[in-house]
Amino acid sequence: MTDVTAASALPDLLLESAAGKDSELRTSTANSSLPDSLSSGFTPESPGRRAGPVERRDLGSLLPARMAHWLGEHVDALAAAILEEIQNSVPQFRLDTTTNHGIRRAVGQCVERALAAAKPDENWNLLFRTFGRIEFEEGRSLDFLQTAYGIGGRAAWQHISAGGRALGLTTDVLCRCADAIFAYVEEISALSIEGYAVAQNHSAAALSRHRRRLLELLVADTPATGRIVAEHATSAHWDLPPDVAVVVLEPRTVHPGIGIPDLPGEILAAFDGGQPWLLTANPARDMRDLAGKLGDWRVAVGPTVPLASAASSLARARQTMRLLKRGVIADTAVVWCADHLSTLCLLADEVLLEELCARALAPLAGLTPKRRARLCDTLLTWLQSRGSAPEIAAILKVHPQTVRYRLHQLTDLFGERLDNADDRLDMEIALRAEHLLAAAEPRRPVGLA
């Protein structure tokens, strides 16, 4: 048993590292769903075998004592034969020190199980999950590893069958041994698939966390230092651009089935809050490319600003979305903040605007709503055009005499304020704001008690 123990010994550092990593991955992905094939005992199909749950057939229950003794004596030769065959048949599969130790451990543990008819322990499962994890971390698919497992199984069978025939084992016993060997191959393949999938889920979750944190840093009230932002950008696999724009999204309906669109990697996205938003360095290109995927969403694009001012783009995009939902800004496929700057300025602080309107339009406070509306239309047209009565009448589609009558009323109400440039500016701002808000929703005139 000395050879078996030596062959199955994996360096403590490797096993401890694998155990720590496995625990970390499993904890971080505890709520992540693995493919159904893993949870149901998936096994890769092999020629002549039916895919299905692994059916363990331990060699210890199949081998006569003399064959088990022979296997224990030849464990080193068996491991060497498997390693040589893998290296010759799959040169792309890198047999580094860790992998060599791992395969020798696997062979040794298979022999231990054969001699003692023992069930696999957690270290056995951990070892092959670790192989799957390593393949993912090295940026490879599982193809080479699975091929290596299959070749190793065939090499083991050739070695064991030759020894069995030399010892005079019957064909029936040898066939059952072959079945057990390839059951081992299926078992370790399924474990490696599981380790690969868990690492994959962990990597995706970690990348998502880094990107979310980077977004938070970029739009924080107190901007992070350039060094901290750069470090998080590296972890998020995102190249820092000089300028960015924030895009705010809002579902057009309350239907719970609305889907989150697939986004290219250069766009950062936050979909886990109350109002989803994106950050892009090229809004014109990305909005064009995403137009077909965002049909179920209202889209408000903030101004393009230096990266350090991303928070201001987010604030303007959110303000645009609020006015869009209220109907102040027309709802189109994509609403660009830059097309509505005067509206955004006018309505940036509606409390302050209320006070301005109350003061600027105070002479109209005692009028009936109908009379007030007519005088407001006439006053705004006069302020914008400073035209004659016939010119204003043409714009309002009324008789010039009607305009003259209204202008006399306005003169009586406002007096010399109509001759003051600052007062006229306040009046025009107030009247434009009233016009915008009145077009969006029925409400009392701004500034009226």
Structural class: mainly alpha
N-to-C SSE string, H for helix and E for strand: HHHHHHHHHHEEEHEEHEHHHHHH
Based on CA atoms alone, the radius of gyration comes out at 38 Å
Largest sheet: 6 strands, mixed
Instruction: Give the CA-CA distance, first to last residue.
Output: 98 Å
The counted number of beta strands is: 6
Number of structural units classed as domains? 3
Extract low-pLDDT stretches: 1-19, 24-56, 443-449
Portion in helices:
55-70%
Shape: rod-shaped
The overall average pLDDT, rounded, is: 78
Strand content: 5-15%
- Helical region count? 18
What does it look like?
A hairpin with a 6-residue loop joins strand 2 and strand 3. Helix 2 crosses helix 7, helix 6 packs antiparallel against helix 7 and helix 7 packs across helix 9. Helices cover 61% and strands 6% of the residues. 31% of the residues are buried. Strands 1, 2, 3, 4, 5 and 6 form a six-stranded mixed beta sheet that branches. It is mainly alpha-helical and 449 residues long. The protein contains 18 helices and six strands. It folds into three domains: 205 residues, no CATH class; 106 residues, no CATH class; 83 residues, Arc Repressor Mutant, subunit A (Orthogonal Bundle), CATH 1.10.10. The termini are far apart.
